[in-house]
Specification:
heterodimer; A: 672 residues; alpha+beta; 9-stranded mixed β-sheet; 6-stranded mixed β-sheet; 28% strand; B: 572 residues; 7-stranded antiparallel β-sheet; 5-stranded antiparallel β-sheet; globular
Amino acid sequence: MYRVGIDVGGTFTDIVALEEETGNFFGAKVLTTKEVAEGFMQAIALFCQHTGCRITEISHLYHGTTVATNALLERKGAQVGLLTTQGFRDVYIIGRMRRERIYDLFYQREPKLLSRRRIREIPERIAGTGEVIQPVNTLQVETIIDEWKREGIEAIALCFLNAYRNDQHEKEVGALIQKKWPEVALSLSSQVAPEYREYERTCTTVVDAYLKPRIGYYLSQLSTALSKQGFQQRFWVMKSNGGVASPHYIQQTPVDTLLSGPVAGVIGGVFLGELLGWKNLVTFDMGGTSTDVGLIVDGEPIRSLTLELAGHPILTGAVDIYTVGSGGGSIATLGGGKLLHVGPASAGADPGPACYGKGTDPTVTDANLLLGRIGTRGGLGDQIKLDPLRAEQALSPLAAQLGLPLIETAEGIVQVVDTDMSGAIRRMTIERGYDPRDFTLVAFGGAGPLHAGSIARHLGIRRVVIPPFPGTFSAFGLLVTDVKHDYVVTCLTNLWEARALDQIWNAFLQLQEKAQAELGELTGYLPLLSGDMCYEGQGFVLDVPLIPNDLGNPQVMIQKFVERHQVAFGYIEEENEMVELRNLRLRLLEKMPRIFPRYPETSIPDSTPEKRSIFLEGHWQEVFVYQKWGLRVEQRVVGPAIIELGNSTLILHPGQIAWRDSIGNTIMEVEE
Amino acid sequence: MSIDPITLKVINSYLESTAEEIGRRFRRSARSPVIREVGDCSVALCTGNAQLIAQAAHVPAQLNSIPPALEWTLREFPLHTLAPGDVIVTNDPYSGAQHLPDLIVFLPVFVAGKVEAIVAALGHHIDVGGMAASSLAPASVEIFQEGIRFPPLKAYEQGVRNETFFKILRANSRQPHALSNDLLAEIAACQYGISRLEVLFQRYGVDTVREAMAEIIAHTAAAMRQEIAKIPDGAYSFEDYVDDDGGKRTDIKIKATITVHGSAITVDFTGTDPQVDGPVNCPLGMTYSATSYIMKLVTDPLLPMNAGIMEPVTLIAPEGSLVNPRFPAPVQTRMQACHRICDVLLGAFAQAIPARVMAACYGSTTIVAITGRDLRGETYIHNEMTAGGMGARPTLDGVDGVMCHGSNGRNVPIEVIEALYPLRVLRYEIIPDSGGAGKFRGGCGLRRELLLTGERARLTTNSDRHHHAPYGLFGGSRGQPHRFILTHKGQPQVMRSKLTNIDLQYGDTFTTQTAGGGGYGDPFERPWYLVQQDVEEGYITVQTAQELYGVVFDADGKVDQEATTRLRKSLR
């Protein structure tokens, strides 16, 4: 039997598989198709063909997808109508009033997912305390439903003021809509994101509704295609928080899958760390147009409670991933004050970097080629021969503007990228109070290994690990995840007050009820508790891990919060025990048995390394170019050198040393 | 010119991201809504000789005023007298600061025993005393009524906290706890900034970083001179008015003459009215700040924000005038003058570079502060700002309900207000027809209505452009002005813009209506389909479409194109 992971990205659909009994590994890429399910099934067919097994021999199928992300970024979601409390139609339009670019004469808001006429008000009101001030006028709801049916609305978002405190009205109106119009997709703010701040909650609910018809269609297409082929086993979709859920669940809250694609790479990093015995890792997934950075502390990915995509703040628990809008295909330009910029514009897959033969803009890949950091055979799995002349032509105008020689311009581009990437990693580490020097860098994606060495030096990171197949590593992460179910209850408790104990206990019971309603018996799951806590009056919460015993002792909860506060912000409030518990969270973990991969032996016996000129640290040097699979296990390669990894390249700087370990990873360290 | 452009970029990015990081830390750990929700705070990094080198892009009016305050501070505490661990704090407008609630801190960065940089932050704190809650007192006539004032002094000396200072500070605030903790958050965020800068100096060496800073500023100044050279030579004047000073004085004139000569520019406020009794006086630091904001706005917004921006600019602000008042004039509501300075400068630039300006924005920092006792019997202060419409641009409509020019706060979420205070928000919406008509429409203003659900409270406000509505450009009309309405026992009453300690009773509502931005260009040139879209989306009414835009709708709500053409011709 096989465990199979399929990661659908914008350009490629990656498939990886592990045979459960032997750990045998399979990995491949196919092009993502317009009907995404098609490419998905092609990938499975390819897997069956290569391994000679049938689809029924897949025991678990895991799926990471950027369908939701791309639908949002490319604005290809549903026609949404928003129902809200009377008097508050414009909450969604106004946002938080702030402008992001203060000196921009031509500033405009990020476009909304629906226009103002699609926002309708309902007479109803719940107070800040949760008490009902004005009941719902359901008659009005029915009129609006009729109009929206005529106007071609496909999904309805429902967000009433203070529904995070009392969901009665949303439930009432939701039930009415379902009765009158069962086909329409429906999202309730009290279910999607039961947290305060009406603008952010509205945005989250609108995004959820916007994605729902498309994700629903996509997942049902997939399920149909799979069952047609005879697949009857468990099929899981990766969520932004690193957990997985059934397609049925995802169809109800698609907003939970916005990071479904990149998060698998972080989960893969956790597994790799377990395997190697390292608990603190930075995952660095550098692709063609963007780069995702994740952080693993003490064996667990760092999570955040909100994320922001294309100007939409979204309240959804997510593995904290910082995305930089630049990668191997990013274009270099000259900005104001004569400063060199790289990205966010990208040559993408089409036309691609200039050296691929079609584009004319100078990209990071062109710079790498001119510097000798990648070989001319390096493009897309040796399919394309790279053309240095075209790269030169692309970079020349920029060099002229800068008044620098061509080669220094190329080096400059690479340095700017490295700085931006280091900045991203710094944001994920130092800004959260972690020292990057205590971390191992896990570099993958097509361009990750190429830049890892220099980034490690920037940040003082002493060890880099590159997984066996860096190009499909993100998909690999799908195979090594546990099944996680998450629940949250808002409790707004002042921990210093006497009644706190009862309130916490009630919240905990509610959490359990919610979980039982979905999963039935809860034995067999590992429970993980945490609280969103802050000093009274603070606006942003800290996520504080708790154990069940803490719930009986608010003093201990306060203490744990204060310790987190010191780490996160560098100070604590003296003699202040006024700490609030805003939400209580429960994660139920179903541990999946681990499979240890065995990679196919692709030994190239004793190949003699070639030599190549590379521009490194300001001058040309002749260095050896090794083939990774041509190296003996543990054979040391001393920098400066190049190791070709198949679809990627690792650059060793002077003072760095690397080898292949027995399970196929490439490890690079600073020479002692 | 010995540092290569790459190192320059790396150092510049490092400085900018450091400033952003400090700002984020400050906001996330602060407790008062005015900082954590509104984000009324700023961060700047300065060179050892008090030149701005990088800033976090938060609130423009505050940002560019940090260097003058630092200059002043260094007169009191010359660099060589400072030691590691020192934290200097000031809020004194007559020592370069802004107004009393804005606490500016300066932390020196030492490398090898010398100050090589200074980390600065400014937070608008919840209350530093004075005659009304939130230290907002439009009725004041001397700075002494506005709260506790301290010239630059050491809050920490070599890492040891100055307990006397903190005691006095707390004793003078209505919210001592929030104030001192927010100040701790501000200082802790800056301390983190120091450690980041130390790494930078270590990595590249002091000489390189010092030189890079000088070069970044020099590059910016050179780019700025190139930009100014593109502006036609000549003298351009404009004037506009602040409604009143909160007391009896009305129609206070601000006048500016911009003289462009090659790559140099002089901004001269001669002709501006003398300082007034009420607190709309604008301290020099803020006049400087507003001017540098406009210089960047009308030239290249992508230029790094540093001392180079103002290098080619000569600023003349007559002493004793509204834009450079003498001690002890009150200055608390100086933002009204700041907005007007922006409007006046843009009006002058419109004559020279019409494609690089916008019509007047809503032009007021409109604050409502309510204080009373909550259910636990404790004093609460709710303080919120409401934005209005942005002025229309040469190619774009103004944005509806967005912070403009010197201001850039967020709103306080309704659910936060209702969770914390005995207040309920009754509506929060865009006001149709409030944006000035034009080929490009001014942004619409907002309406926000608050209901007092608790016992007796006191209300203080600060606003302007209730009488002098935001101007339009090149045929565009004015936006609708601001308005305050107090409804007591069902009786609505229009209130003046600056109120101090008005009594509110249970059940009273207070409505804020903010101004719309001015229009740009002749409204008859606006394509009918855009007018139709505005009607469908509810930004203008059918009546306005007809009266101001000359667009006629038939009984089915569709545009009658023939009638429109006829009407537009006949009205010309």
